[in-house]
Amino acid sequence: MEEVIKIEGKHALEGTVRISGSKNATVALIPAAILANGPVTICGVPEISDVQSLSVLLRDLGVLVDIRSSDTIVIDPTSMENRPLVQDAVNKLRASYYFMGALLGKYGHVEIKMPGGCYLGPRPIDLHLKGFEALGAEIRYDHGSYILDAPQLTGTKIFLDIASVGATINIMMAAVHAKGRTTIENAAKEPEIIDVATLLNKMGANIRGAGTNVITIDGVDQLAGCFHEIIPDRIEAATYIVLAAAAAKEVRIDNIIPHHLEALLSKLKEIGTDLEIGVDNVVIRASRDLKAADIKTLPYPGFATDIQQPLTALLTQAQGQSIVTETIYTERFKHCQELNKMGANINVMIPSSFINGPTPLSGAEVYATDLRCGACLVIAGLIADGVTTIHNIYHIERGYEHIDEKLTALGAKIWRETVE
Ligand code: EPU
């Protein structure tokens, strides 16, 4: 028995949708909160399964997790214990690796199973480990688990070969209690990194430069509890913007930071979508005569890899050949074969996909192979003639809060069904 999402396409969407707190910030903020000596209140937490998986890990560490309302949690690490993280929940999401930096920073010792997450091709964590080693940690890999030990972490200069989001955040967390100054050069600049640095600074850390490519962390002895509100999810926002460009009569998307979405918004203008950008919202109206475009994914502020998959669904409706080139995860093209089942004409030659449009799409049985592939298939289902059935929806539930309810409120015909 499996729960699937079904979508009957071709219903023009109309209304307003509110974007939730950022998933990729949340999954780092929750582990970061354990560095405090008192309760940390975080609001704007999305109701997604990744948060449930992280809550399981927190509770296994003896951390009190109090869900105050649909979007506010209080994380109280006062009586936590540094136990090995080897249970199944570690495998459910990649971000469980943030417990490496947080526990190493707090206790100088971590034991954690190899983290899981979406398969997007190889996703090494060598830069995280090199960073921890540079700070003084010894690392062993034993029976599928990493064991990290550092009686004393000492600040140092760390140059990242690749501007990795995860490595930047993980090293920042490990370094908050290190002796002296840590400098991360070629740091990633994603908005989620600024959000984590903001939380840590509110707790009492001394981090400067987050959002630029040089981050400086001066070690401190103690971190206290605090209150923090998560930034809006720029990838969820992007998904709804693209979805509206594909299927809206008129849709307003609230609670966005347009600055975080500049690469997408300027690309959508090039494609010919009708957008009106406000201070914290965007209105999208039905757009005709879309033009093909070329996209190359890059680290922020370049075009996000997470958005190329949803955008590909829209590009199937554009006139001409679009080329999407992946430079972050070169195998992130599993959505293309699913779109082709619906009538798209896409050739994949890694690291690029060639999308020949416009092609009418029709409902089919398709499989979400990862989170953003799932988002892409939802958009395709909204455009398609007939009913689309999406399998493996647990991928979608990892990162999109109440996607079916949000879309139903916009007039989409989307429902869940349990099938054999
Ligand atoms: N990389 C290495 N070694 C490392 C770390 C990364 O070679 O030690 C490489 C990766 O293989 C990749 C590149 O560096 O080619 C960038 O990876 P990065 O570390 O920045 O990615 P991540 O931290 O694992 C986060 C998001 C991803 C998003 C990427 C890129 C979270 C939890 N995940 O992953 O989000 O695609 O940054 O922006 O923040 C998603 O939301 O669907 C998603 C997969």
CATH homologous superfamily of the largest domain, by name? Answer: Enolpyruvate transferase domain
Give a list of the ligands: uridine-diphosphate-2(N-acetylglucosaminyl) butyric acid
Q: Estimate the strand proportion.
A: 25-35%
- Biggest sheet details: 4 strands, mixed
GO molecular function: UDP-N-acetylglucosamine 1-carboxyvinyltransferase activity
Enzyme class: transferase
Keywords: Cell cycle, Cell division, Cell shape, Cell wall biogenesis/degradation, Cytoplasm, Peptidoglycan synthesis, Pyruvate, Transferase
Family: Belongs to the EPSP synthase family. MurA subfamily.
Structure write-up:
This protein is of the alpha+beta class and 420 residues long. It has 2 domains: 1-18 and 232-417, UDP-n-acetylglucosamine1-carboxyvinyl-transferase, Chain, CATH 3.65.10.10; 21-218, Enolpyruvate transferase domain (UDP-n-acetylglucosamine1-carboxyvinyl-transferase, Chain, Alpha-beta prism), CATH 3.65.10.10. The protein is 33% helix and 27% strand. It has 14 helices and 23 strands. It has helices spanning 23-33, 49-60, 89-92, 98-107, 126-134, 165-175, 191-203, 234-247, 262-271, 305-315, 334-341, 371-383, 394-397, 403-409; strands spanning 2-8, 13-18, 40-43, 64-69, 72-76, 109-113, 138-142, 145-149, 157-159, 181-185, 206-208, 214-218, 227-229, 248-254, 274-277, 281-285, 294-296, 320-325, 346-349, 352-357, 365-367, 387-391, 413-419. The strands form 6 sheets. It has a 4-stranded mixed sheet with strand order 21-22-1-23, covered by helices on one side. Strands 2-14-16-15 form a 4-stranded mixed sheet. Strands 4-5-3-13 form a 4-stranded mixed sheet, covered by helices on one side. The N and C termini lie close together (5 Å). The mean pLDDT is 96. The site of uridine-diphosphate-2(N-acetylglucosaminyl) butyric acid has 25 residues, from helix 1, helix 5, helix 6, helix 10 and helix 12.
